Each structure stands twice: as structure tokens, then as C-alpha cells.
Amino acid sequence: MNDKLMDCFINPVKCKLLLEIYSNKQTTAKQLAEKFKEISQATLYRYLDKMLKDNILKVVEENKIRGTVEKVYAVKSDIDDDAKKMINENSAEAYVQLFTQYMMAFMKEFYDYAKREEKDILKDGSVFSVCPIYANLEEITEVARKIGDILEPLRNNSSGEGRKMHSIGLIIAPPKEE
Fold first, then answer.
1. What is the C-alpha separation between 167 and 8, in angstroms, rounded?
2. CATH for 3-75, among 2.30.42.10, 1.10.1610.10, 1.10.10.10, 1.10.260.40?
């Protein structure tokens, strides 16, 4: 998995855009702007341009609308293949790097939150916990799938109605040696 793609995963706004485009197979900036009203148009176009230059996205269609050209975006690289390749290579170094970037993204979100003047830890809906469990691979896989099923409808929510963007991460630590 290349560094530019990882940058998209650790940036909450880029990640949201990338996942939306990936989920829909293709989309326009207008559709993204309608879905994510909290993202300014300037930021949206800046990130789309950056992801195009970084070869994360590609333009699959251009539609002429009232004298302007509307671009239709799709994910260029195969995220699934990149992740499978990293896993199949069984590279501990790449895995630790990926995990470090993942944790750094969360640390930055908590750091930025802590610097805010207005914050209320209880009312802002921030929480983290650890739940040690004994499970086999099939049970772990099933739990991860169920958590994904629970989160999927929330991922499709738009801002407004008191909703604010949160990031929810799932970490299943490797088993401990006995």
C-alpha cells in the first residue's frame, strides 16, 4: 500500500471522500458536496485534485453541463488488492508501519480535540476502551463483520440534525503468546 493512499486513510476528510467514491464505484464532486455539507467546496476540490495527482483517483467521465465540465471520479488503485498484497507478503515491517500510521491518525484527532477551547468530553461522544477476550479466528472474523454491519448505516449519514463527524476505529490486537 503506497504512502499517498495511506495519507488518504489517516486524513479523516480524505478518508470519508475516498470511501464514498469507493463504495459508489464512481461519483461527482457535486454528489460528494451534497453528501458532506460540512466539507467546504474549496477543501473538497483541493482534496480531489490532490488525490488525482497522487494517482489515487481517476476521472472516468466528463459531462458538459451549462458550459462547464463535470468530472466523474473513481478510485484508480485497487485498495483491496493493495491490502491483500501487504497481507500475503506477511511483512511485519509493513504491518507495523500501517498500524503506526493508523494510530497516529487517531492521536492527531484526540490532540486537535484537546486543543479546542469548547469541549465537553462526556457530551461530545468520545470514548475508548479495551475488552480482552478469548476467541478463535472464526469468532474474531464474525465479530468484525457484525461491527462493520452496525457501522455501515451510520457511514451513510450526512451532517446536520445534530450530527458531527466522528471516527470509529476497530483494532483487534494479535494474540498474546502463552
1. 14
2. 1.10.10.10
- Give the three cell numbers for residue 66: 451549462
Distance, CA of 16 to CA of 166 (rounded, Å):
11
Over residues 28-64, the pLDDT tens digits come to: 999 999 888 888 999 999 999 999 998 889 999 988 8
Contact assessment for residue 178 and residue 51, using Cβ atoms and an 8 Å cutoff? no
**Pair 24, 16: CB distance under 8 Å:** no
Q: Identify the three-state secondary structure at position 114.
A: helix
pLDDT at position 83: 65
Q: How far apart are alpha carbons 54 and 76 in whole angstroms?
A: 10
Centroid of chain to Cα 24: 14
